[in-house]
Structures are given as C-alpha cells and as structure tokens.
Design goal:
mainly beta; four-stranded antiparallel β-sheet; globular
Length: about 400
C-alpha cells in the first residue's frame, strides 16, 4: 500500500533548489578538476609524484572486465548473490561471475544512467536521467520503472523488500522492490551549497542510514521513513558558503553495533546504530568517504593522506601522506594491505602495520573515484573509463 511518511520537514522552494543545484555544479567542477575549492589556480596543490619503492607484497589481478564509461558520474560495483553487478553512464547494466569476471548477462536500460547499481542478488536497480528508477530481476529482465522526485546521483540501496534512493533535492524515497510502488518519502533541509557528489545509503533489517549534505547522518525507519535519530558528522563552519560546505562523503560503513561516516571539512566517527550516540569522533576532512573491517576504519583525507583508525576508539594508528593531492578513492582492506585508487588509475597497496608502500598496480589510466568493495578474498575497483578489476593480496 502506498504510504507517505508523516515526517516532512520544511519544503525547499524551487528557486532555492535551483540555486543549490547550480552552486553544487560549481563545486563539482572545482572538485573534479582537481583544483583547490578555495582557489582558481590549478597548480596550487599539484599531485605528488609516484614514490619509488621495493615491492614486498605479492598481489594478483584475479580478473578484469569492461562495463562502460562513467562520464561525469560515479558508478560503484556491488557484490550480492555471488555476483558482481556494475553499470555505466550509457545505460549498460552487467552481472559478472565474482570468481572469474565472466559476463553472466548484459542489458541496456534504454536511457543514460546517473547512479547505480544497487542489488540484493535478486533485484538490480539503477537510476536514469531525470530520476527514473529502473529495476531488473536477477536474470536481467526488466521488472518496473518508477519516478524519483529529481535527479539521483547516489546508488540505490535494497533490503527488506524496499529500494531506497536519495535525490539531489534531498528527498529520500522508498519504493516497493517487487512492484516499484512508492511507500514513503522524507524531505530533509538542503544547504545552500553542496558538493555534487554521491553520499550513500546503507540498510540493515529495520533502518536506512542516509548520508546527507550539511554533514548529517540520518537513521530512518524502513517501514515508514520516520526518523530514529540524526547526528552531525560535520557542522558547517566559516564565513563563506564555500567554507561552510560539510557534506557527508561516500557510503557510510555499517557494522552490527555501529555505523561510521566522514564529512568533507568536518569529522570522522562511529555511532551506535540503536540511538546515534557517539562512540568516537575526530576532526577530519574527506571528499571520497571511508570503508571499514571488523577492527579498523580507513579513509583518505582531502590532502591525500591515508589513515587507519581503530574502530573501537578512533585512535589513528598510521597516516601515509605520500599520495598528496592524487584524488584518492576510499581505501579498503585486502589481505595484509590497504588498497587505494588514484586519479591516474593506479591502485596503491599500503602495509596494514605502518602504512608504508608494499605494492602498486596500474589499471586503465583513468580516475578511480568510486568506493571499492570486498568480494570474498578479493577487492573490486571500478574506474571512470569502465574497467572493473578484482584484486587479491597475500
């Protein structure tokens, strides 16, 4: 049955929404061009040259596949049901065997895509131009189409019979995973200026944890969209709108008892999933996001430093600053290392003990912006040129 959440914050006027979109596009140009947000000079912070080192870690490219270019958007792969699902800006949606990279099926959504892919292994969801949400079954057969309130840049999240998306007007909408019927919509306030990025959504059995512009992390009840709690990961500070950008970056990391997030010009921290209470929080700024494993949290700051934090207390164990301004992806743990992609398509492997370089692999030379994922013993990266690569390390 179609239900609307009773929790509807103050509406954003069309004029204000239009201004926010225009300003966010300006911020995106600054970020994607590699410039400092606070300067028009392109070489104020030039990317650090690659550091020479002796490779001490054995790595393996398990497989590679080509999906299609991302264009100006970000497409992260997803691991579900023993498969890797990926998408591209030209409408391509693929299912790959997670062990071999072999294409199980490949379909075209029939429209250009701006976000995706989301999957639970049975339902596969992407979002096209003007916010058209499209679902396929596990065999690539089209199931339904639905309309989000506006353009969507973040990958849909799927779970508990729902598909949850956030559109750039800051509305979070839940659709029925079987029929596409809208179940509820929640509107959150939209800051004047935001980064044109793709803050993500993660789900557990009862709650959607939504990363938001303005530095907020919101927990919404899946059954009706009612707020469970909301915390400030980054509080806007400064005198200008640029200085006050504090958007949550990337996809929140979800554990059994905690959820972790990081904001641009904000903080990094972990919070209790039940009530949002702070477990720990520290000043930090990241444009890309974070990942976590059972014991640690990994993030790359906006200056190109990669840091490993303990997940229980937030103690910083090490920081590698030798990839300065190389526009890094979120780092991810793999074997004895932490892997992170950069703007030239290199994947750097850092020691989990001290952050030193232990290996490096090149891909197709295009930027790696999207959050990598774990798939069994391998990690999977997707480049802006459309290469999906699975890597393993000892």
């Amino acid at each position: 049955m179609r239900r609307e959440s009773q929790v509807v914050p103050q509406r954003v006027s069309r004029r204000a929404a239009s201004l926010a979109v225009k300003l966010s596009a300006f911020a995106a140009v600054a970020v994607l061009s590699g410039c400092s947000l606070f300067s028009s000079k392109k070489e104020v912070n030039p990317p650090a040259p690659l550091v020479e080192f002796k490779q001490t870690l054995r790595t393996q490219t398990v497989w590679t596949a080509s999906v299609g270019k991302a264009g100006t958007f970000q497409f992260s792969p997803v691991f579900a049901g023993g498969s890797i699902f990926a998408a591209a800006a030209d409408g391509a949606v693929v299912r790959l065997n997670a062990a071999s990279g072999q294409v199980v099926w490949r379909v075209n959504a029939g429209t250009s895509l701006t976000a995706g892919v989301g999957s639970d292994g049975n339902t596969v969801v992407v979002v096209g131009e003007k916010g058209v949400v499209q679902a396929f079954d596990g065999n690539g057969k089209s199931l339904w189409k639905a309309q989000a309130p506006s353009e969507v840049l973040s990958a849909p999240a799927i779970g508990s019979g729902l598909v949850v998306v956030r559109s750039i007007d800051n509305r979070i909408t839940a659709f029925d995973a079987e029929s596409g019927a809208r179940r509820w919509t929640v509107l959150r306030p939209l800051p004047t200026l935001t980064l044109r990025t793709a803050p993500g959504i993660v789900l557990d059995a009862q709650t959607a944890y939504v990363a938001l512009p303005g530095g907020r992390l919101s927990a919404l009840a899946l059954n009706n969209g009612a707020p469970r709690w909301e915390v400030a990961v980054g509080d806007p500070r400064g005198t200008t709108e640029l200085e006050r950008i504090a958007d949550v970056s990337g996809v929140p990391g979800l554990g059994v008892r905690d959820v972790c997030a990081v904001a641009f010009q904000g903080r990094i921290g972990c919070f209790d999933v039940a009530n949002g209470n702070v477990r720990w929080i520290k000043d930090f700024s990241s444009e890309s996001g974070l990942t976590l494993d059972e014991r640690y949290v990994f993030s790359a700051d906006d200056k190109g430093g990669v840091t490993e934090f303990t997940r229980d207390t937030g103690a910083a164990l090490w920081r590698n600053g030798k990839l300065a301004y190389r526009r890094l992806s979120p780092p991810i743990a793999v074997g004895k290392a932490v892997a992170v992609g950069d703007y030239q398509g290199y994947i750097h492997f850092l020691s989990r003990d001290d952050g030193s370089f232990v290996a490096r692999i090149s891909t197709d030379g295009s930027p790696i912006l999207a959050t990598p994922i774990a798939a069994g013993q391998a990690v999977v990266f997707q480049t802006q040129a459309g290469t999906v690569v699975a890597l393993a390390a000892e």
